[in-house]
């Protein structure tokens, strides 16, 4: 029964698509002129993400590997000179860069903060001049009111 219905629908579709006797050209006529269409500007393509948005994760090592939260703690610079993405269950005995901006912090209330041993996500109260912390940023919008300027990736009162 189902096979019969499938055959019937197939015939209906074929009839609907059926034919005119128009033939496709066998060559393109270059004298016809340019195609009347505006060029596509890649900046207009809306993929749901701003083109200048920072990527989640930190770039690491000479190959610029992307260390992504969830699979990696971040980029570990080992005392012996080795650099690479540290696995989630690993132990970095060197400088660990867990974030390079707020997009890497899984909780929007956290800040990416440099406390002297590598940037990591922390509570805003832990990232102050009193604690020795500096907010890590990509732009002025990542910075708190007390340090509103993003200067070389760190928030400051003003860039020098």
First-residue to last-residue Cα separation: 80 Å
Number of strands: 10
- Taken as a percent bin, the fraction of beta residues is 15-25%
Largest sheet: 3 strands, antiparallel
Radius of gyration: 28 Å
| Principal-axis shape | globular
Mean pLDDT: 78
- The string of secondary-structure elements, in order, is HEEEEEEEEEE
Helix content: 10-25%
Annotation field: number of helices: 1
Low-confidence stretches: 5-16, 37-51
Detailed description of the structure:
10% of the residues lie in helices and 22% in strands. The protein has 160 residues and is α+β, with helices and mostly antiparallel strands. Among the domains are: 54-98, no CATH class; 100-160, no CATH class. A three-stranded antiparallel β-sheet has the order 4-3-5, with no helix packed on it. It has a three-stranded antiparallel β-sheet with strand order 7-6-8, with no helix packed on it. It has a two-stranded antiparallel ribbon with strand order 1-2. It starts with a helix and ends with a strand. The model is unreliable at 5-16 and 37-51 (pLDDT under 50).
Task: Give the secondary structure arrangement, pairings included.
Blueprint: H1 2-17, E1 58-60, E2 65-67, E3 72-77, E4 83-87, E5 95-97, E6 111-114, E7 120-122, E8 134-135, E9 149-151, E10 154-156
Antiparallel strand pairs: 1-2, 3-4, 3-5, 6-7, 6-8, 9-10
